[in-house]
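Below is how a single chain appears once it has passed through the pipeline. First comes the sequence as given, then the structure the pipeline wrote out for it. We keep one example in the README because the format questions we get most often are answered faster by looking than by reading.
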Amino acid sequence: MILGRSERGEPPVEPVTLKILVAGGFGVGKTTLVGAVSEIRPLRTEEPLSEAGRPVDDTSGVEAKHTTTVAMDFGRITLREDLVLYLFGTPGQERFWFMWDELSEGALGAVVLADTRRLEDCFAAVDYFERRGIPFLVGVNCFEGAARYPAEAVRQALDLDAGVPVLLCDARDRESVKDVLIGVVRHAMDYAADRRHAALG
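Resulting structure:
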């Protein structure tokens, strides 16, 4: 059994806190993903879909969805004693994209959640992070009844650089989501190291 620092009589470590964004299209599972791993009760800013929004909210493929995130989702997960992630889920609809600049301030990296039935819905998020130089990975949320495609096929469909990780996941499953979050932290650290190396070279 591995003992924590407090159990070994050592002073507690001040954890490193990192900010991760969770982005993607409307109804792709961002709120579900944050809720699946958050060790605190997630902060949610969901509102019922309204008749006024019906002309601009494309619910094809997600007809059962009755609410939408209008500001952000927020959760927290401790990956290790010395590493805490703060998760910020972005709103998926175009009319709320003005909030992305605020939410992305200080982010280590991002997860772009994708649904193979509506893959085009994540193009905007991919483009956003590419243009701002924010490292990201694509998490393909494997919905029941949706066709399954290999990660490489999704990469080609999204025209991603070879260095962008693509992981298949289940946004409802805590362990699956943890794997995605660990993946984005590793990718962001590698990305930062490559940039430092390029600057020195």
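The helical segments are 30-37, 100-104, 123-132, 151-158, 174-200.

See the next section for the split statistics.
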